[in-house]
TrEMBL record, chain A:
<keyword id="KW-1133">Transmembrane helix</keyword>
<feature type="transmembrane region" description="Helical">
    <location>
        <begin position="363"/>
        <end position="385"/>
    </location>
</feature>
<dbReference type="Pfam" id="PF05140">
    <property type="entry name" value="ResB"/>
</dbReference>
<feature type="transmembrane region" description="Helical">
    <location>
        <begin position="103"/>
        <end position="122"/>
    </location>
</feature>
<dbReference type="InterPro" id="IPR007816">
    <property type="entry name" value="ResB-like_domain"/>
</dbReference>
<feature type="transmembrane region" description="Helical">
    <location>
        <begin position="20"/>
        <end position="48"/>
    </location>
</feature>
<keyword id="KW-0812">Transmembrane</keyword>
<keyword id="KW-0201">Cytochrome c-type biogenesis</keyword>
<protein>
    <submittedName>
        <fullName>Cytochrome c biogenesis protein ResB</fullName>
    </submittedName>
</protein>
UniProtKB/TrEMBL annotation, chain B:
<feature type="transmembrane region" description="Helical">
    <location>
        <begin position="552"/>
        <end position="573"/>
    </location>
</feature>
<feature type="transmembrane region" description="Helical">
    <location>
        <begin position="527"/>
        <end position="545"/>
    </location>
</feature>
<keyword id="KW-1133">Transmembrane helix</keyword>
<feature type="transmembrane region" description="Helical">
    <location>
        <begin position="319"/>
        <end position="339"/>
    </location>
</feature>
<dbReference type="InterPro" id="IPR002541">
    <property type="entry name" value="Cyt_c_assembly"/>
</dbReference>
<feature type="transmembrane region" description="Helical">
    <location>
        <begin position="375"/>
        <end position="396"/>
    </location>
</feature>
<feature type="transmembrane region" description="Helical">
    <location>
        <begin position="403"/>
        <end position="423"/>
    </location>
</feature>
<keyword id="KW-0812">Transmembrane</keyword>
<feature type="transmembrane region" description="Helical">
    <location>
        <begin position="585"/>
        <end position="606"/>
    </location>
</feature>
Length: 393, 630
């Protein structure tokens, strides 16, 4: 019995020690540093996945790319810091005026860490791309794609079945209640270039070309060249999938789909009309947004951008909202839990792209800020008073 | 008397700074009213500035200094150089004003260092035959991202850009060939009606005066070429609307002659100045300037005033003069540790105060000129880091009058002004803000607060360096001084933690307000976070007894490395929303600085027998540090 007590005491001692705090702080500093350097290669999103929103930073060793953890990730360090902080406050600290500042600061830090965790899990980012005069009621993912099979039989209503790219990547056959056929995946490339086959020399297989057994739509006329997945934030990965649809009487046909193919591919089956394709994952909104006007100002006599702005009209589908808003640099529109801010612009073609962010935890940093600021002011205020008293003494 | 010496010294130095407000000697002694010319407002890169700024920033970016020598080896005023660029390009082309240091680039242009002034400055005439090759080489390098270029490629692109901007200047007022442009314009003014009729008739295959049509059309295409080539907009709008976006290039203003039937009077003014300069006729030159300034004074009084002030500011060189004062203050402070502390220490303090006052005025003037908060780009952040650190040192020196804070302050003040000088070589430091960085409340506050955090972290590092160096000099550190340093470093680290934390969080609020996310793991954000964490590490290590005096000092010196990485290293990565201050050349300077700081940390941990500590407290603290750092 007594040995159990010692074990738990040892645990408490370990998790409440200031040495652990310093070690964790050093580790977190190193993590932030190496992750910043890694951004040159991976881009911010690659770094988020591989360094911060993970328990271990992995290195891929050897030809078989065996994953080996070589550094604690953001979740591990952050988690230990949280435990360390909370445990210290429970066991080590006594609530006194003298320590109130530190207590408050640390409590704010806890809120901040939890807030970043909430953000990491729940935050969603989309792009809303439209041309002047265009109205959209959905935004599109920056990186994710989906295969859609749309039943267009009913002239008034499309029935959309969307299959996320991650499911396609798994490669297992897919059966869905809304579809009268199964979907078999014969090929999937996370990023690829497409070329028309007739632009290549006939009867030859250029190096790097992937097999393509598509026999329907535009697919047979296309050559697929897979390429490396890009983590560059300015690059968009364009995946390709080769899908066979199999009905009760056997194969209906094999299609090649990719977000790069803008023309819909259509087919008929069992007396119904379908469209098949792959597109950037959409998120439909309970409101529609129309781009009325965009502006791209530069400073006189220079190419330095002064301002980008999009004037939009927001209409809620339930009629509760019908107004105009001006979105410009450092002046986003907040609406229904979304933040729309000016992201990119091609003023020559009248195209504007807004970034759409939803973060349910967005208030937490504000609460943390208030707590930490008060805490620090209190703490250093007490120090300063003592310091000047000691000097005058 | 002893009390008077510091005051007298400060007064003399303040007077020396004030002398900068006078018109520079070269301009004062010229028969031409060069000073009046240099104060004329033009619009360039989004803002109205005096021609003086155009001259200085171009010279700095071409050759790293503002001084020019003409072909006879005489030093001429920057304004005189600019006038030659505008109106006597064949002369200006013979001045050696283009810096080339990369040996590979010299090979490409077929020159050796002995052909150049100071072995590195060459004239446009010397480079002219190599222009096609320079262009070809630069185009090869253009294909690469700037971060991937090697030293030669960076150098050749830089040379090409300098030459482009050099050529652009020549087309500001004339077709750039040194011809008698005024005569052409006067002829056009007298013949514009018939000329337009002749051109129209020629297009309709009707009878016309061929000579008239040809001369007018040649002029028209020269105007068009000027409009394509020039970068500066020197022609203010006529009429009631005087807003900035109505300023025109000379070429643009002259092209409209064919519609209005009237040569733009302001374009004619500059052409007249050009002829007077070509003829070296000061009387006409001065008369035209006086008349022109009189006309501008009606509608552009505000712009004239601003340009005048900026011209005075440029000539006064407050930051150069302050950097001299910082050196004097540092020498006095260090001297006071050896001899006459009662005179030298207050003198150092007084000189530091004057230097700080001069930088304050300089920063305030920049803010007024720009209408912006103090920190808008890397250059102004360097000024502000120094300013903040020196302000802290002035307070510290009052609390601990031991000439330590003055030494640290003048060290940081000088170093940051040196950094600022090197950053200014890339062009106009009062540049316009890109849209993403356009100012608002949270942006302004977070940048200022974080920059003060940088100041404090550097100050803690500088104080720690003083501790380390003095502890290694026999008799260099008595107990009193050691204690004072210990407490100063601790206090400043607390201050740095507070400011860097609050600044980082304010930055998060700005990001949330502007972009909808509080934290984006952008390199600059991460850099700020690392400074916060590092200061927190120092404080926790001290509170936990893991580092005593020597350990804290070593950690504080490492803080210099951390801060430098956040300040400059993150910009060198060239990624992220904050990478507005990207630069190549500073990389090696940063490596050198990091090495020097590591050596200082190493010195702190040299075995104690290598240097004999003299005071008992020091060995005690070193012993205890041994325990915690092993």
């Amino acid at each position: 019995m007594s040995s159990e007590v010692t074990v738990s005491q040892a645990f408490i001692k370990f998790f409440t020690s200031l040495k652990l705090t310093v070690v964790l702080l050093v580790l977190s500093m190193l993590l932030v540093f190496i992750a910043t350097i890694a951004q040159v290669q991976l881009g911010i999103h690659g770094v988020l996945d591989r360094y911060f929103r993970t328990f271990f930073v992995m290195a891929f060793v050897g030809e078989n790319r065996i994953p080996l953890p070589w550094f604690p990730g953001g979740y591990l360090i952050g988690g230990f810091l949280l435990i360390n902080l909370i445990a210290s406050h429970l066991y080590r600290f006594k609530i006194t005026w003298k320590k109130a500042g530190i207590q408050l600061t640390h409590f704010g830090l806890i809120v901040l860490l939890v807030g970043e965790l909430v953000t990491g899990i729940l935050q969603e980012e989309f792009a809303l791309t439209f041309n002047e005069g265009e109205t959209k009621s959905y935004s599109e993912a920056f990186r994710d794609n989906e295969v859609v099979i749309i039943d267009t039989t009913d002239a008034d209503e499309d029935v959309v079945t969307a299959i996320p790219e991650s499911v396609i990547a798994d490669g297992d056959p897919i059966q869905h209640g809304a579809l009268p056929f199964r979907v078999l995946i014969h090929g999937y490339y996370a990023n690829a270039d497409l070329t028309m086959r007739n632009s290549l020399p006939a009867d030859s297989t250029p190096p790097g070309m992937a097999p393509n057994i598509a026999n329907q739509g535009i697919g047979p006329r296309i050559a697929v060249f897979p390429k490396r997945y890009s983590y560059d934030d300015n690059d968009r990965n364009l995946p390709v999938a080769i899908l066979e649809l199999v009905g009760t009487e056997g194969s209906i046909g094999t299609w090649l789909v990719s977000p790069m193919l803008p023309m819909p591919q259509t087919f008929e089956y069992a007396g119904r009309s379908f469209r098949i394709g792959m597109r950037f994952t959409r998120e439909y909104k309970p409101f529609a947004m129309k781009l009325i006007e965009l502006k791209h100002d530069v400073y006189p006599g220079s190419q330095i951008p002064k301002n980008f702005s999009s004037r939009v009209h927001v209409t809620a589908l339930d009629g509760s909202e019908d107004r105009e808003a001006l979105i410009y640099m450092n002046h986003p529109l907040r609406y229904q839990g979304y933040t729309f801010y000016q992201f990119q612009m091609d003023s020559a073609n009248g195209m504007s792209r807004l970034q759409v962010v939803r973060n349910p935890g967005y208030m937490m940093p504000y609460i943390a800020t208030i707590l930490m600021t008060l805490g620090l002011l209190l703490q250093f205020g007490i120090h300063l008073v003592k310091f000047t008293q000691r000097r005058t003494a | 008397m002893k009390r008077l010496i510091p005051l007298l010294l400060a007064a003399v130095l303040a007077l020396w700074v004030g002398m900068g407000l006078k018109t520079p000697k070269l301009e004062r002694e010229s028969a031409f009213h060069l000073d009046e010319f240099s104060r004329l407002p033009v619009l360039s890169n989004g803002r109205i500035k005096p021609l003086d700024t155009i001259a200085r920033t171009h010279l700095l970016s071409f050759q790293g200094r503002q001084r020019v020598k003409n072909a006879e080896g005489e030093t001429i005023a920057p304004t005189a150089w600019l006038l030659d660029m505008f109106f006597r390009p064949e002369l200006a082309d013979s001045y050696q004003t283009i810096e080339i240091v990369h040996p590979g680039v010299l090979d490409v242009v077929g020159l050796s260092i002995n052909d150049g002034q100071d072995k590195k400055r060459f004239s446009f005439s010397q480079l002219e035959s190599a222009l096609p090759e320079i262009d070809r080489q630069a185009k090869l390098a253009d294909a690469l991202q700037s971060a991937q270029r090697d030293a030669f490629q960076r150098a050749i692109v830089q040379l090409r850009n300098r030459l482009v901007s050099y050529q652009q200047l020549k087309f500001t007022f004339t077709p750039g060939d040194g011809s008698d442009f005024r005569t052409d314009l006067v002829w056009l003014q007298d013949n514009v009606g018939p000329a337009v009729a002749a051109i129209r008739a020629r297009f309709n295959n009707e009878e016309h005066d061929e000579a008239l049509a040809t001369r007018a059309m040649n002029l028209g295409s020269a105007f068009g070429h000027m409009n394509d080539m020039a970068g500066i907009l020197p022609i203010p709008p006529q009429g009631d609307d005087t807003s900035d976006h109505l300023w025109q290039k000379s070429g643009q203003a002259l092209v409209s002659t064919f519609q209005t039937g009237q040569v733009h009077p302001f374009a004619l003014v500059y052409a007249g100045l050009g002829t007077a300069w070509q003829d070296q006729d000061p009387e006409t030159f001065n008369t035209i300037i006086t008349l022109y300034r009189g006309i501008l004074d009606d509608s552009f009084a505000e712009q004239l005033k601003k340009a005048d002030r900026e011209n005075t500011f440029n000539g006064a060189e407050p930051f150069y003069r302050a950097s001299v004062l910082f050196v004097i203050a540092m020498l006095l402070a260090i001297g006071s540790w050896l001899v006459w502390p009662k005179v030298l220490r207050p003198s150092a303090e007084a000189v530091l105060a004057v230097a700080w006052f001069v930088t304050t005025v300089g920063i305030l003037t920049r803010m007024w000129l720009e209408g912006r908060p103090p920190v808008t780009n890397l250059y102004s952040s360097a000024l502000f880091v120094g300013w903040g650190a020196v302000a802290l040192c002035i307070i510290l020196e009052r609390l601990f009058p031991q000439a330590i804070a003055v030494t640290a302050g003048s060290l940081i003040g000088f170093a940051t002004l040196l950094i600022a000088h090197h950053l200014s070589l890339s062009g106009d430091t009062l540049e316009m803000m890109r849209a993403v960085l356009d100012s608002n409340f949270w942006l302004a506050t977070h940048v200022i607060v974080i920059t003060i955090g940088y100041s404090a972290t550097y100050l803690a590092g500088a104080l720690a360096i003083i501790y380390i160096v003095r502890s290694r000099v026999p008799g260099g550190l008595d107990k009193n001084t050691g204690d004072a340093l210990n407490r100063m470093v601790y206090g400043i680290v607390c201050f740095a933690t507070l400011f860097s934390l609050i600044g980082t969080i304010l930055g998060g609020i700005w990001a949330d307000q502007s972009w909808g996310r509080f934290w984006g793991w952008d390199p600059k954000e991460n850099g700020a976070l690392i400074i916060v964490i590092w200061n927190a590490i120092i404080l926790h290590a001290r509170w936990g007894g893991m580092a005593r005096t020597r350990g804290i000092m070593a950690l504080a010196v490492f803080g210099n490395i951390v801060t430098s990485w956040s300040w400059f290293g993150t910009n060198m990565l060239g990624v992220g929303l904050h990478s507005y201050g990207f630069m190549d050349a500073a990389f090696w300077a940063l490596i050198g600085f990091v090495t020097s700081q590591l050596i200082l940390i190493g010195i702190a941990y040299l075995p104690t027998s290598a240097a004999k500590p003299t005071a008992p407290h020091l060995s005690a603290s070193l012993d205890s540090a041994k325990g915690s750092n092993s």
